[in-house]
């Protein structure tokens, strides 16, 4: 059994503000260590329950957050960017399950840590009309390959979002947000012990979670924060401008739709905040 772990930073215990999550933030060195520790806990749990292989995707920012020399040496690390499947690059049919560690809720969620969906310049993202954040987008990519997401660790709002979208998924809340930039956190050591135990249980007794599958053509709809952002997102061939802020794209499958989304999110990042 092989396990795929996608790791973000905003949902890590002990992380509450952009000073933690931005690479130039004064608390970033601490945050990347906390992130590495939580990922190691998930790796230990997976191997402890009999996993034969673990691949970890460093999935925050440009993918250079996890400390490679401190990562459990049994795991393979996907790092750097850009990557065609971004936070899920390397996922395929050979994996039995995917874990999400350090995850946060979708943009626009109240009482959720540092919320966004890939970028703060998007208000809303939908696949075939279903509102999704990073949990949903990445679960859909895993589902394309028949891989279920069986364990999600992050803030309480992320866990609730995962439970709504992926019935039966095992979740672990390491903190509860107080607005977007404050949180009540468990001690990092407690977080890691709990993640290790939950990951071990998710491998030993896999929850009955169906892969999130969007079959056939998939319509991506993004709502930008500004008309200028929608101007840029709409530059992709075959994209359609629906209104001042909204752009849609129909992909042959969820992978193509996601790659269009990935391109749009890069384009809207070029729009300055005003």
UniProtKB/TrEMBL annotation:
It comes from the Bacteria. The keyword Metal-binding applies. CDD domains: DAP_dppA_1. The active site is at residue 116. Zn(2+) 2 binds at residues 8, 60, 104, 134. InterPro entries: DppA_N (IPR027476), Peptidase_M55 (IPR007035), Peptidase_M55_sf (IPR036177). GO terms for molecular function: metal ion binding. Zn(2+) 1 binds at residues 8, 10. Keywords: Metal-binding, Zinc. This is D-amino peptidase. It comes from Desulfomicrobium norvegicum (strain DSM 1741 / NCIMB 8310).
């Amino acid at each position: 059994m092989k396990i795929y772990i996608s790791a973000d930073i905003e949902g890590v215990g002990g992380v509450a503000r952009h000073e933690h999550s931005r690479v130039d933030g004064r608390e970033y060195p601490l945050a990347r260590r906390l992130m590495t520790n939580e990922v190691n806990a998930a790796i230990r749990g997976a191997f402890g329950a009999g996993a034969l292989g673990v691949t970890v995707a460093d999935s925050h920012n440009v993918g250079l957050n996890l400390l490679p020399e401190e990562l459990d040496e049994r795991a393979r690390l996907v790092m750097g960017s850009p990557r065609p499947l971004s936070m899920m690059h390397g996922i395929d049919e050979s994996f039995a399950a995917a874990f999400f560690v350090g995850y946060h809720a979708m943009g626009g969620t109240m009482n959720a840590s540092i919320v966004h969906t890939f970028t703060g310049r998007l208000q809303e993202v939908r696949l075939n009309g279903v509102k999704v954040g990073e949990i949903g987008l990445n679960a859909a990519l895993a589902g394309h390959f028949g891989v279920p997401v069986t364990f999600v660790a992050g803030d309480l709002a992320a866990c609730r979002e995962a439970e709504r979208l992926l019935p039966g998924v095992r979740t672990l809340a390491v903190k509860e947000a107080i607005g977007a930039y404050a949180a009540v956190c468990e001690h990092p050591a407690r977080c890691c012990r709990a993640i290790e135990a939950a990951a071990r249980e998710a491998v030993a007794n896999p929850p009955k979670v169906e892969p999130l599958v969007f079959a056939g053509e998939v319509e991506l709809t993004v709502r930008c924060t500004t008309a200028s952002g929608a101007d840029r997102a709409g530059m992709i061939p075959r994209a359609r401008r629906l209104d001042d802020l909204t752009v849609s794209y129909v992909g042959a499958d969820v992978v193509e739709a996601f790659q269009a989304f990935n391109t749009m999110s890069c384009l809207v990042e070029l729009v300055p905040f005003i």
